[in-house]
Write a structure and sequence with these properties.
With 310 residues, this protein is an alpha+beta fold. It folds into two domains: 105 residues, no CATH class; 193 residues, Rossmann fold (3-Layer(aba) Sandwich). Helix 4 crosses helix 6. The C terminus is likely disordered.
Amino acid sequence: MGERYYDYVGLRVESELEIPEWAGFEWPHPFSEVDVTIRLADGAWGRDAPAQGELVVRADECSFRISDIATYRVRKGCTIDVSPVSGAGWQEVRLFLLGSAWGALCYQRGLLAVHASAVRVGDGAVAFCSPEGGGKSTLVAWLITKGHGFVSDDLTRLDMPPQGRVLIHPSAQRLKLWRDALDALAWSSSELERDHYRHQKFHLPVNGNGKGQPVALRALYVLNWGESCLERLSGHTAVQQVISAATYRGQLLQRMDRLGLYWQQCIDLVRRVPVWELTRPRDLSTMEQTLERLEKHWAENEQENVCRNP
């Protein structure tokens, strides 16, 4: 495999692995300076190799091993070494590269990466966050059918410059959807990649935001199940809800001693972006009502100018 170059979430990446999930972020020529290098390692790490299921964290280094797939080592926010197990599928190798390994790299660099999905609304984007199984990808899929452009899914990077709006970077151009969501949308799963661990979950390619330019984050929604309700959150409640719903791999943050920085970033985020709690039924037959509520809410807030960053 020759080197590939990607301009992804504001980082210039040189990779020895081809990453089809980043096809929309591929760069035609080498960069004069590279932020991140992804390398194939030979696996001969000796005593440095972590045991199966073990997360090893040292100064500026994080490594872990996934049985029958690969060992990953992330260093100084600049390098990811990947040592695949013989016979492992490249789709599975990339799954953890673009998930836990990339999340660890973002934390090492001090970047704010959250567990969220987002779509375009007006001149910016709105993001939905929830723990695993909270329905954020399903909600985004339905919003796409209403003409809202896809921005991100799963691990999402936010950028908070000292001045101006909070920005959200487009992610890999695909959604992870359960079969029941695909069935409700009348979308076929016959040609989709299955998730490695969840047989009834599929990876759906989508068309996103061009070459990956960041857009302003207009609002953040914390998703919960229950009776339909949309409520503005503020202060300590908003911070707690966002941290509970949006934290990606909290174990990484804790072991890497990044919790303090992450909390401060979330506090800053809540100060600068409106946070809402959206509660809705689990029943997918009620999705149209949820979409109507959201679009009415966006129209009203556009007029009142309360869904914009200061």
